[in-house]
Amino acid sequence: MPPGRLLDVGCAIGTELRVAQERGWKVTGIELAESSVRIARQAGFEVHAVPLIEAGFRTRAFDLITMNHVLEHVAHTPVFMREAHRTLADDGVLFLSLPNVHAWKFYFRRGAYAWTFHEDHYIHFSIETLPKFLQRHKFQVIEISTSRWLDFHDRPENHSSLFQAINNAIERLNMGIEIFCLARKM
Predict the structure, then answer these.
(1) pLDDT grade, residue 125 (50/70/90)?
(2) Domain ranges in the chain?
(3) What fold, for 51-185?
């Protein structure tokens, strides 16, 4: 995807804004944590300290919208997703990363909270449910995957066949801790 206009929802201190800007993107952020907004603005980034639905961006303002561990914290997803759809260009792309409710580690939790995430997570997704959710909100999944258990490929001392087998199984079963998804506006 050629550089264009990027909105990072939940941009924190602007680390991903910096990387995108260095690659030619015109960047804008949204962040609700005041201390993070201050740091990102001091770094020279345009950061709005309001929720997406209050930001007032023009229609089709962005070519790419990124949301890294944001969607699960949104209490009113229909309104939020309508606004994301409205502000995304007609051929725009949405990138999401979020916790995977079917991650391997949740099978090992015990007790009353075995299947819960943080209490500020209002909605939960798996690699099966996220595409359905996105389609309901007029987005078509381009690519979706989960993270691996261990990222050991660049460390030769960790190339044991056991770890490779575990990683391959987690990847094949879509049980990685995070879901990564690219979706196009329909």
Answers:
(1) confident
(2) 51-185
(3) Rossmann fold (3.40.50)
